[in-house]
Automatic annotation (TrEMBL):
Pfam family, one: AlkZ-like
Source organism of the structure: Streptomyces griseoruber
PANTHER family in alphabetical order: CYTOPLASMIC PROTEIN
Protein name stated in the entry: Cytoplasmic protein
UniProt-listed InterPro entries: AlkZ-like
Length: 394
């Protein structure tokens, strides 16, 4: 594909601020739209099993809106069919109106030549029949999720219902105790959206456009990664996606931007906050390094002796920059900063503010700092936390 000559040149700082605004950080968030507005703005909110402060899909709106109630978050996603869970960047909560645009992925799953789990004959039809009669149900209620205690040893029922989810015959309509609750798509998805009429090109064009809007500006790899489509699929549709080619200082690669993101300069400030490692602002490591000069890596799956920043190190966003990391834990009503990494002494007040606000959100009344990568800053951080706690309690 011949790439059109870029019409716009952006500085690295402009690109960073465009990305922050596109991700819902710069400018006043639409509080009236709340969590649902955040979901539609981002296009995808990643799910993950790890819960330290809270689960990742709760941390995403918290980072943008502040102390939104956790029940409010769950209700916003699942009540009144505003969202569905499907495979996008990973397992993600997606706006329900995007159901038709994942038809290309549902077709790909239906045409998949092999699976990692065998499906006993008749089980698929039995699961669909049971959901039609009794649904919505969890895998346990359908007959059991696992054959043994091993996480990977799925029962035939679990294999069947997950395959039906991939095919689009079944939808996850909520998470209950972190278990998926399944129902038939014909009941759960609004009738005007329940179709697979769009061809692959139309689906991909839409997802590329959505990725560009959610990123503000991105390279081919950034855009492909957002909903995990292939680079050649991006190439095939990007000229007709509505995104425009740009160059960004220091990126060294062609980039595309959302025209709306270029129409006005990004202005405003944002909250100082902890970020989930699965936040879409930072979930692509190479992009995070390119935009923020910050190396971000989830170490939960790294052997403990090899961890550098901690099990669930959460980057701290302040002043449009990533200024440090906190690996949190909870002991009763104390939020424990097990390990803190600071980019410089100037980051101390921001990290203290982020810690105290996060503690308040999860009903902790105290904060304890254990280890700081620069030991000489531990006392300063502890004192800043104490001052922030006193201010918060006034």
């Amino acid at each position: 594909m011949t790439t059109p000559r870029p019409a716009t040149e952006l500085s690295a700082d402009e690109a960073r601020r465009i990305a922050l605004r596109a991700q819902g950080f710069l400018g006043s968030p639409d509080r009236k739209a709340g969590v649902r507005g955040i979901l539609r703005h981002l296009g995808a909110v990643q799910l993950d099993t790890i819960s330290v402060l809270a689960r990742s899909h709760e941390l995403i709106p918290y980072a943008r809106l502040g102390r939104v109630g956790r029940t409010t978050v769950e209700d916003a996603y699942w009540k009144d069919t505003h969202a569905f869970e499907y495979w996008s960047h990973a397992a993600c909560i997606l706006p329900i109106e995007e159901w038709p645009h994942f038809a290309f992925r549902r077709r790909a799953y239906r045409n998949r030549p092999h699976w990692n789990h065998d499906l006993p004959e008749g089980t698929y039809d039995q699961v669909v029949k049971q959901l039609r009669t009794e649904g919505p149900l969890t895998a346990t209620e359908l007959g059991g999720a696992k054959k043994t205690s091993e996480w990977w040893d799925w029962s035939g029922t679990k294999v069947a219902v997950e395959r039906a989810l991939m095919y689009g015959e079944v939808v996850c309509v909520e998470r209950r105790g972190w278990k998926r609750v399944y129902d038939l798509a014909e009941r759960a998805v609004p009738a005007d959206l329940l179709h697979d009429e769009l061809d692959d090109t139309a689906c991909l064009r839409r997802l590329v456009r959505l990725a560009g809007q959610s990123l503000g500006v991105g390279t081919r790899a950034d855009i492909a990664d957002y909903h995990r489509i292939r680079g050649e699929q991006v190439d095939a549709v990007i000229a007709d996606s509505g995104l425009v080619p740009v160059t960004v200082e220091g990126w060294g690669k062609p980039a595309w931007a959302d025209p709306a993101a270029l129409a006005t300069p990004p202005r405003g400030r944002h909250r100082t906050t902890l970020l989930s490692p699965f936040d879409s602002l930072i979930w692509e490591r190479a992009r995070t390094e390119r935009i923020f000069g910050f190396t971000h890596r989830l170490e939960a799956y790294v052997p403990k002796p090899k961890r550098i920043h901690g099990y669930f190190a959460m980057p701290v966003l302040a002043g449009g920059r990533l200024v440090g990391r906190v690996d949190p834990a909870r002991e009763g009503r104390t939020l424990v900063a097990r390990q803190v990494s600071l980019d410089s002494p100037k980051a101390v007040p921001a990290v203290a503010e982020a810690l105290v606000e996060a503690a308040s959100w999860v009903d902790c009344t105290d904060v304890r700092v254990e280890r700081v990568d620069a030991p000489e800053l531990r006392d300063a951080l502890t004192q800043a936390v104490t001052r922030a706690l006193v201010t918060a309690l006034r």
